[in-house]
Every structure is written in structure tokens, then in C-alpha cells.
Amino acid sequence: MNRIFTRLAILSIVFLASTNMVFAQNRTISGTVTDNLTRETLPGVTVTIKGTTNSTSTNENGQFTLLTSASTPFTLIVSYIGYKTVEQIVSGANTALLISMEAQAIMGQEVVVAASRTPERILESPVSIERLGQTAIKETASPSFYDALVNLKGVESSAQSITFKSVNTRGFNANGNTRFNQYVDGMDNQAPGLNFSVGNIIGMSELDLDNVELLPGASSALYGAGGINGTMLLTSKSPYTSQGVSFQLKTGINHVNDPNQAARPFQEAGVRFAKAWNKFAVKSTVSLLTADDWQATNYTNFDRNSRSQKNGDRTTDPNYDGINVYGDEVSVNMRNVANAVLSATSAGIAAASGGLIPNINAIITASLPVTATPAQIGAFLGVFPAALRPSIQNAIPFNIGLRAGLIPDQSVSRTGYLEKDLVDYDARSFKTSSSLHYKLSNTIEAIGQVNWGSGTSVYTGSDRYSLRNFSIGQYKLELKGQDFMLRGYTTQERSGDSYISSILGVYINEISKGNSTWFGQYVGNYVGARAAGAPDAQAHGLARSVADVGRFPAGSARFNAAKEKIMNSTISSGAGAKFDDKSNLWHYEGMYNFSNILKDKVELQVGGSYRIYDLNSAGTIFDDLNREIDINEYGGFIQAGKKFSDIFKLTIAGRYDKSMNFEGRFTPRVTGVLTVAPNNNIRLSYQTGYRNPTTQNQYIDLSVLGGATRLIGGLPASISKYNLFTNKPFTDVSYRAFLASASAGTPNPALLKAYTFDSKGVRPESVRAYELGYRGLLGPKVLIDAYGYYNQYKDFITAVDVYQNVSNVFTRFGVPVNAAGEVNAYGSALGIDYMIGTFNLSGNLSYNKLGDIPVTYINDFNTPTLRYNLGLNNREVVKNVGFNVSYRWQDSFYWNSSFASGDVPAFGTVDAQVNLKIPSVKSVIKLGASDLLNKYYTTSYGNPLMGGMYYVGFTFNQ
User: Fold this and answer.
1) Secondary structure of residue 707 in the 3-state scheme
2) How far is CA 387 from CA 279, 335, 349, 352, 390, in A?
3) 63 band by pLDDT with thresholds 50, 70 and 90
4) How many alpha carbons fall within 13 Å on the CB side of residue 331?
């Protein structure tokens, strides 16, 4: 508790101390912006002082006021979607400007901030950047703007549920993407216990979203650790320039022609309120989404040791392990079962007889032939005391079965439960955000902001995790001006009622009948059936039917009672599947732009940050049951840029970061932009990036896959906890070779090869990224953006599966390690926008390829080689009516993860919407569909198939 108060105090001190800063003398610039033809005033126009972050927007009457310390003359950049950007020179004492704008479809004039952390035209960005503005957000055909991100050039996602989608660029896609950063109003949106963003479940309401900027590729030099494969910034609307009440209602259906369930409705509702009173402003948003989630129904038989598919199903493979079936991960070799029964029986008989019968197994072997008749067995049992006969009789089939070769070297698994019987598919996402704003001057604004959300979803990691009633809160204090920013925030994660599906299935089986009893019954009845002349397949069927007697049918009262008990018991109790995570993140940062002080002769920015991860999982995720775990990190950056004759701009940046568990890292960046013609620029960049091992990479200690695997952290202390340095484990490949030799009847321990862990443990991974790109206008109607990249990864963080032998019992561990050698990836992309009258025809093509990789590296590139998007839209094809149609296609590829691996088929989808604007009531009605043709597809192996979503929406915007 004292630590929390200390960190809150730091937030408050930073915020209050910064308000006492002394600023130079300011001048006020005001004006009105109108349409040059209609003379109507234009609300929401962005007015920015060129080369600075000082900006504002016009109010509902088209008026703006801007306070600046810049010396005249300087230039105002006036930009508005659908209008030609105006550059207005301010000189002398002119403080009341009249600016008219020409309505024209001019492309490439959007202003972006993310690429350099300072405003610049997107045409002049030194690195690749994608942007969604307010108009594009409103006109997206997908049910949400987050779903529409995959239409951007080079962007892909992994969809694990209707609300949980992980965004990625440039390869190495993942269900939980730790190589991609997401910021919401400057706050890192990651869940501290996961180290990645949970999509937009706990994010920003579409009503309050001003724009999205996405940087493909490395961005550590400006944004710190992480973001090796991309960074996305979501910025909300200002209550000063976007005031009033807005609300949105959306309803629709999904699961149309779904073989798993009937069509179901989904609904979403949101409301936003913003009001400004001169210097003070307030804003609040609330939204709620409810839906029936997509169901994961991949029942392919999977070998988790080799991460490969195998033949057979539940009826044909005794050791069946379905991908989306849970509880069947528990598997035991039949001969091991027989030997275990015999050993236990011998020990029990020896104890019960006072040592007079020390080894009943040896006596059975010596007394009974493998062809013993019932009469012989009865006579044999008659010589023993009556109290011991049942136990001895139970052991006889196992003894004879082993000697007669009736028990095969075959593993069998327990009968599992389908995911739909275990996972909560009632998807829900509740989000709310409130903020207070106060302008200390026209250029300095103080903000207090609270973002909080709760939801129910499904996430795929090393298992399928049912995230029920989890919540994340973000609480921020910020002070920003035209040249500086100070910010402190905390992220508070609460796992709610979330649980692991496979452990739930395993424990339900265990409650219905213990594993030792179930496997004993299985093998005993198998031997009896084989001895009676039944063929192998029939014997297995009979054995399973007998062993499953007493199994809780899915949905039965006994099943539901066991399920509730396990779901509400924590993992650390040893009898539950529930997480108990209350991890937190505390972050403080500041930045200052010296460009104005330097009269814009040189652009110079400096900044720094400090972060604390406070892990609190009570032993249900991390190794923190009996200790506290904090991770401290700090860093700083500097960036300098210089223009040479308005033809070439050179920018050099560098950042140093240090985490308490790893050596410090310096990440430089060099970019150049060459203007070859007006509105035509060639960009060249060298960037470096790195990411620290995640909190789970460092400290996880969790049993997954029904107890078949234990995930542990890669720090030396975690490896030492299980004696993996001294009692060295064996490699996955060699262990499987040993199993194969055992199955052939000639077990060969010499095949086992020891694995040696690095004494320093897992280290941060890094990337060197090279990019050459071009963005330009070919006349006023054609915009082209193209790039090629080459990435070199070093110390790539991957994972190894190893098997440790303790007392002849092999335990499987999953441990994060660094791949030896370099991992290379390369690719390119091309995007074209073409204006044909009022129609906008767009298309983009992306190519990504994995290069050379080390022999020991597990290939998890998880990205299609080719992917393209086509789009056609018209904002007003007839009066007040617009439409948008997009087609997305991607090639097939192989998906490899710790949960499941397999081929993801190629697919193509059509999204479309038509909208009707009703200006008299300031409203829009939109009829739309994603996957209009309802062709079911999946984006990643082991995740659900998804189909069409059809909806109608109504939006009111005051």
C-alpha cells in the first residue's frame, strides 16, 4: 500500500511542479475559417503553427484562437478533410485572420505526428506511416474501426474472438503481440501482466476517436522498448473543439449459416458528452458491446510434443488430443500404467502382510502362466488371506498382460470436453473515459483523465484463456504546451473471473474419476478384452467406455457444479483454473521541443521516461506466491533534424534504455527525406529497435495444456528453481527420437541429447531495420506510396521445449531463450489512391518474406507472403448518400505457436456499407456488413472460424 501512495505522490508532484514553469511572452492569433464558395463557416478545422506542435481547431462557428510565443513572421497550416490545405503567413500585428478554404479532393495533405513526434505532412514523413482520420473512421464498412485496420497497407491481425484482435506489421504475427505497441492518448495500452494490448476491448470509443496513426516497423528510438514490428497511436477528440452530445446505436446479426449455432444478434451503444467553458472543459464517453462470440471448433488431432498434426480422431486414436478439446491433454503410456499398478499393489500387499509377502508381482509371475485358466487363478488366490485377494486379483491382468505382450507400448488420453462446453462465449466490452481539462494559457493545457473498461472475451496464448469480467483502468495526469509535455499514468489490471480452459477440463475429469483409477480401469479392461479375443480397436473402445462410466456429461448438474467450483478456485490452490492477477504499471515521462528557441533553424527534441511493473498474480501466473516482483526501467532520447534548402531533411535520433534485469541499450535512428518534385518525396531510413523479454518471459511459472507443460521464465533464477542448469534437460527432438525407439521395442537412452541453457538467461532482442520509400502525388488525383524494407533480428526471443528426467519421470518445460545467429526478414508494399471525379479507387499490395534463420529457430513468422486490399468509395454519390466497398485477400501460410500449429488457408472477404446523412437532425444511418458474402475464414490456426456480420447503425452528432 505504501508503494501505491508513493507512486501516486510522484504523479501529483510532477503535475503540480510543472505548473510553476515560466514561459515566454505570448501573442494571441485569432481568426475565422470559411468555405470559399458557400461562405459558410467550417467547424473542426485544424490550425497548426508550422514546424511546432502548437495547434488548435475551429469551434462550431468556425472561429479559432491560438496563443504562441513564436516571433513573426511564421506560418499557419490550416487543414480540413475534403479541403485544400492553406498555408497562411502571419506577420506584424495581424491577429484577426479571415481564411477561406477550397473544397477539393487533395490527397496526401493530412498532418501526422507519430513519425517524428512533431506535426508534419504525411507526404513528408521520414518513415512509413498509415493514418485513419475522422472521415475514414466514420465511413469504415467494418462494425468497428479496429476491424478496419487490416485494410491499411501492410497491416494484418490475429482474431481470437469477436472482440480480441492483435494487430501486426512486417511478419512474426502472434495472438498476443509483444512486438507491437499501442498507445491511447499517450498511454501504453498494454496489460501489465501480459505485456501486450488486449485489442480494443479496453480502449477507445469510436465516438471519441479523432485519428489513428500506425508506424510499421521499428520505433524504439522515439518510443522506447517494444514496437519492434510497429507502433500505433490512438488520439481522442478535444473537448474544446468537439463539443456537444453524440450517441451511436448499432445492431446486427452474426453466425449466419454457422454450423455451430443459429444466427445471433449483437448490439453496441455509445454516448459522448463534451463541453468547454472558456478555459475549463470536460469530456465523458461510455460504450457497451454485447455479442455471441465465434466458437473455436478445430478438432484436428495434434501432437503437442512435435507441434504437428497427426492422423485419427477420438474413435480411432486412443491418444487423441483435439486442438479445441480440453482435458484430453492428460496422457499416459499403457505399459507405464500397468507397471505403476503392479508396483503400488506390491507395496500395499507387503505392508498389509507385515512383510511376509514382499513382492506379489514376482510370485504371480512364478506361479501363473500367461495362459492361466480361471480355475488356476482361483486356486492361486485361495492360498492368500481373504482380505488380500481383491488386490491380488486386480493385479493379475496387468502382470499377465505385460508378460503376454497384450499391453502395447501405446499412450492413451482421457476423454476431453469441447471448448464450447468450457469457455464463456458471452462476449462483452464496456468502456468509459472521462477527463477534465484546464487551459493555463492558450498553449498550456492540464489534463486529468480516467479510462476504465471491463469485458469478457477469449484469448489464445499457450492455451485458450477465457477472460471473464476482467478489467483494466488507466489513470493519467498530464501537462502539455506547444513545446513540452509532462505525463504520468498508471495502468491497473484485474483478471476478474478469468481461467484456463484446459486446466478446467482436466480438473472436471479428475473430480469425476481420478486419473489413477481411470487409467487403471482402461488398461485392465483392455487386457481383458484382448485376452477374450477382441481386436485392438474394439478392445480400446470397450476400455474407454468402461473407464468413462461416471464421467460428467457436459451441461449436466454434476458437470456444472464441478465447473463452477474449479472456475472459482485459483490456480495456486492446486485445485482450480482461475487467475488472480492484479498487476500494475506506473509510468512517468516528459519531452521538450527546443525548435522554437532555436528559431526553427534546427529541430531539437529531448525526452525521458521511467517505468515500474508491479506484478501481483498470487502465484497464478508469475513466481510471486511468496515474494514481491517489481521491474524498474528508465530511458531517454534526443532527436535533431535539419532542412537543407527545402529539398532535403536529415534527422538523427538516439535513445538509451535500461531495465533492472538487463544491460542498457542504445537505439539510434537516421532518416532522410529528399524532395524530388513538389509533393513528391523519397525517404530513406535506418532504424534500430529492441524489446525486453516480457514480464512473463522473465517471471512466469504456470502449468498449461492441462498440466502437460510448465512454462517458466528465462531469467537465471527461474531456470535454477527447477535445477535445469544442473540436472540438464533433453532437447525436444532427441526426446521424441527416444520415444520412437521405445515404441519400436528397443528404447535407446543414448538418443537423448542434453540442452544447456545460457548462464545469463534470456536477453533483450534487437532489430536493425532499413527502409527505402517513396510517397508522392502524380497530379491532383493520384497518390502513390511504396516502400521496401529489410530487417535483421539479433538475439530473437523464441522458446524451447525441453524434457527433464527426475526419478524416471519426464517433465516438459517451455522456456524463453534467444535464437542463436540472426533472423532476417524482408518485404515491400505498394499503395495507390486514384480520384475519379468524386469516387476514390484505392488498392494496396504487401509482400513479406522470412529470410535465413538459424537451424535451431522455431519458425513463427506467421505471415502470408502476399496480401492485398481493394477499395471504392464515394462520400456523396447522390445527395446525402455515400458508400464504401472493400475487398481483402491474403495467401495461405503456416502458423506456428505454442498452442497449435498448422496451415491457415487463403481467403478473401468483402466489406461494404451505404450511409444516409440527415443534416436536419445531425444524424447518419449506416447499413453495412463485414464479410458480406459470409465465407467463413480464420486468421490464425487454432482460433475460431469467422463469418459475416450484418448491421445497421444510427449516429447523432450535435
Assistant:
1) helix
2) 90, 27, 10, 9, 7
3) confident
4) 23
